[in-house]
Request: fold
Amino acid sequence: MTQTSSRRLAILLGIGMLPCPGAALALQGCNQVEIAPRSEATVSVLLPDPATDPRPQLTVRNAHKAGPVDNWTACPITKPYGACAPPTHADVATVGTRWVVDPGDGMQLIAFRLKNGSASVKRDVRLCVQYGMP
Reply:
């Protein structure tokens, strides 16, 4: 194969791999916080202004400084809010949410407020939001 043929093939493959017009790109933003025993905290993610179809996922696990960690379990993201997946993290509950779409500053904010009902165990809470872009 000549060098010219190789270039043409590379260009055609590149064009063929481009997304169709109007196709949305799938992106994700995440943030994580630690909640002390018997306290509340908010975990939030900022998305770009043109982000579309946000799909949040809220998870929790026991916080560990060293050693193995336990699995993430799901927490409710829609009303009625309540306890995270039992039995391990049923003492952590989603208590509210806030969705702020503010095209004026170029960002969207998605936030969840959680309460750690445990008397002794810190919890890690992670919020990941998948979204599309036009």
Observations:
- Residues 23-133 form one domain.
- The helical segments are 3-17.
- Confidence is low (pLDDT under 50) at residues 9-24.
- The two ends are 39 Å apart (CA to CA).
